[in-house]
Design a protein that fits this description.
The chain is mainly alpha-helical and about 180 residues long. It is about 55% helix and about 0% strand. It folds into two domains: about 90 residues, no CATH class; about 60 residues, no CATH class.
């Protein structure tokens, strides 16, 4: 079992390192999640309504910025009014709207990279997904935990402890993201 766990840890390390080598980051994943929450990728995104509210409403302002970024990246046609708005924003004519106190909803709760990696490790290496505190540290969550600790770029990952990785996995499982489990 120990050799299998070592192989699982190496696999998880390679998977995470590959994510970073391809230019991935948790911050970018969370920002894309925020954009998805705000529906900026949707064909039905109402940019006109958000433009009207953007000078006084943080969520409209944030949505509009993200929608403009999406249009630019997707190389889609940007309506004239938005071109002027984004140009004004870039030149400092349109000022940032600060969010009110309290956290803004991010994509963090939709970021399932770590839980999916736990599942992949468990299936590929025949490991239990989690363990209780009294058992030996050789579950898929433990392998992913070890992998996170081995990769310097992974310092950005907030769930660096076994128990937070386990909770993240259990939360994802409760949401039903793993077919057949």
């Amino acid at each position: 079992m120990k050799k299998n766990f070592q192989l699982a840890t190496q696999f998880a390390t390679n998977e995470l390192q590959g994510f970073y080598d391809r230019g991935g980051s948790f911050k970018a994943l969370n920002q894309k999640g925020r954009s998805e929450i705000l529906n900026v990728f949707s064909d039905s995104f109402d940019w006109k309504a958000n433009l009207k509210l953007a000078s006084k409403d943080f969520h409209a302002f944030d949505s509009l910025k993200r929608y403009c970024a999406y249009l630019i990246r997707a190389e889609k046609k940007i309506p004239v009014e938005l071109k002027h708005w984004i140009a004004d924003y870039l030149e400092g004519i349109v000022k940032d709207i600060k969010q009110s106190k309290g956290g803004v909803v991010t994509g963090l709760e939709n970021n399932f990279l770590i839980p999916r990696l736990v599942e992949k490790v468990a299936v590929n290496f025949g490991l239990y997904r989690t363990r209780n505190d009294a058992t030996e540290a050789n579950s898929a969550c433990d392998a992913v935990h070890q992998a996170i600790l081995l990769i310097p770029q992974a310092r950005e990952i907030k769930s660096r402890q076994y128990r937070t990785i386990k909770k993240s996995y259990e939360d994802a499982k409760a949401l039903g993201i793993f077919v057949g489990n």
